[in-house]
Amino acid sequence: MQRPASLSNTAPRFGAAVRGSFALERDYTQLNHGSYGATPVAVLAAQRIWQDKLELEPSRFMRRDYKPAMRAAIAALAPRFKVDTDGLALVENATQAVNAVLRELDLPAGSGILITDQTYGAVKNAARHLSARNGWELNSVTLPFPVNSKEEILSAYKRALDPAPALVILDHITSPTALVLPLKEMAAAARDAGALVLVDGAHAPGMLDLDLSELPCDWYTGNLHKWMFTPKGCGVLWTAEARRKSTHPLAISHWYQEGYGEEFEYVGTRDASSQLCVPSALAFIDAFGIDAIRGYNKALVNGAADMLAARWETERGAGPELTGHMAMVRLPDGFGSTREDAEALRDRLIDEFRVQIPINPLTGTLWCRLSAQIYNELTDYERLAEAIEALAR
Ligand SMILES: Cc1ncc(COP(=O)(O)O)c(C=O)c1O
Q1: Strands (E), the chain
Q2: Which of 132, 201, 343, 349 is most buried, taking the most CB atoms under 10 A from its CB?
Q3: DSSP state of 321
Q4: In a 3-state reduction of DSSP, which class is residue 44?
C-alpha cells in the first residue's frame, strides 16, 4: 500500500521541522550557530533538573552525586573522541583550557611560540600575555585566504616551522575564515620540528569525526556548547599521557595532585549543570544520528555558499574539501572594508532584517560567515541574500 505523502520518507526531517526543538526566538534568521551554538529545549530541561537536584540538598549532591555524575558524562563522551577517559577532562570552554595549558608551560625565555594570523582573538591574547610574562618569542604565520587546497596551507605552514618553535597553537577550524585546516599533517610537521602541539578545536566536536588517539598533539581542546548541543559552559581538554602530570586546571583546588581527571573534576563550588548535560546532548544527537546531522549541515552550507557566491557574483573562501558546517562568502562591493564597516552592516542586518550573521573584514573587503545547523534551511540564506541586495540598492 502506498504511504500518504505526509508520512513518506521524503518528509522534511530537518530545517523548519526541528526549529521548535530549540529555544531560539522564532522571528529571526539565525545563521550564526558557530559563535555560541544553540541548545535544544530537551537539553535545557535536563539542565534544570541537575540544578534542582543540587539546590534541593546541596551537601548531599556535592558529597555523593557530583563525582559519579561528572564521571558518567566523561564516560559517555570518551568513545565519541576514540580515547579512554583518563586523558579527557571537562572544562568550561576552550578559552579556559588554552589558558590552563599555557600557564603551566615550563619553557625557557627566548622559546618560540607559533600561532597563525587566523588564531582566535582570545587565544592570541592568552599567548601574548604569557609570552610577555615568560620572555617567549611569539610569532605568527599568515595562512592563505581565500584558499584552493590544503597543500597551499601546508606549504605556508611548513615554511614557518624553521626555525623550530618550542610550541605551536593550531586551530582545527579557524574562526575568522571558517577553514577546516589539514590538522593531522600540520601537527605532524610541527612535531617533526620538535614542537609541542596545542590544538584549539573549539568548533570541531560535533562537526568533525574526531579520533584524538590518532592526532599527533599534546593537548586538544574543543567546545561542546557550539556543535554538540550542550548548554553554554561545556568543553573538553584532552591531554596526552606524558603531559597529564604537569597539566592543571586554571583553578587549583581540593584534588590537587590526585590525578589529571580528579583535578579538573573539581575546581571550586560552581554550577556544573552544563557539563552534567553531556549524556542528554548525546541523546539528542543520537535521536537523529550524527551522520545524518553532519551530512545535512555540510550539504546545506555548501549549497548556500554556492548559491550566494553565484547570486552576488563573488566567491567562496574555500571549496568543500576545506569546509565543515561553516563557510565564507565574499559580499558584493560597496559595504566598506573595515571592522567598523563590518559591525555596522551586521547591526543593520539584525535590526532591519532580523538576520544574525557574522561579517568579517578580510582581503580588503567584507565577507560573511555562514553557519548551518539542523534548524536551518536554504530559505534562511535566501533571506540573507535579499537583505544584502536590498541594502546594496
Ligand atoms: C577557534 C576558536 N577558539 C576558541 C574559541 C573560544 O570559545 P569559548 O568562548 O567558548 O572559550 C572560539 C569561539 O568562537 C573559536 O572560534
Answers
A1: 29-30, 88-91, 112-116, 137-141, 167-171, 196-200, 219-223, 235-239, 326-330, 355-356, 359-362, 365-371
A2: 201
A3: G
A4: helix
Which residues are bridge partners to 141 per DSSP? 116
C-alpha–C-alpha distance, residues 98 and 104, integer Å: 10
- Using the mean position of ligand 1's atoms as its centre, give its distance from the Cα of residue 272 in Å: 19
What does the pLDDT look like over 307-343, one tens digit per residue? 999 999 999 999 999 999 999 999 999 999 999 999 9
Q: Which residues of 201-219 are buried (b: 16+ CB within 10 A; e: fewer)?
A: bbbbbbbbebebeebbbbb
Q: Is 344 in the pocket of ligand 1 (CB under 6 A)?
A: no
Q: Which of 35, 120, 125, 326 to mutate to test the pocket of ligand 1 (most atoms within 8 A of CB)?
A: 120
Question: Is residue 221 within 8 Å of 97, Cβ to Cβ?
Answer: yes
Indicate whether residue 120 lines ligand 1 (CB < 6 A).
yes
C-alpha cell at 187: 601537527
Return the percent helix, strand and coil in the chain, to nearest 5: 45, 15, 40
For each of the domains in the chain, give its residue range(s) and CATH number, in order of start: 13-42+289-392 (3.90.1150.10), 57-283 (3.40.640.10)
Banded model confidence at residue 12, pLDDT cuts 50, 70, 90: low
CA angle 178, 180, 185 (to 5 degrees): 145
Give the mutation target among 32, 203, 230 for probing the ligand 1 site: most ligand atoms within 8 A of CB. Answer: 203
- 1, pLDDT greater than 70: no
3-class state of residue 93 by DSSP? coil
- Residue 5: the pLDDT is 42
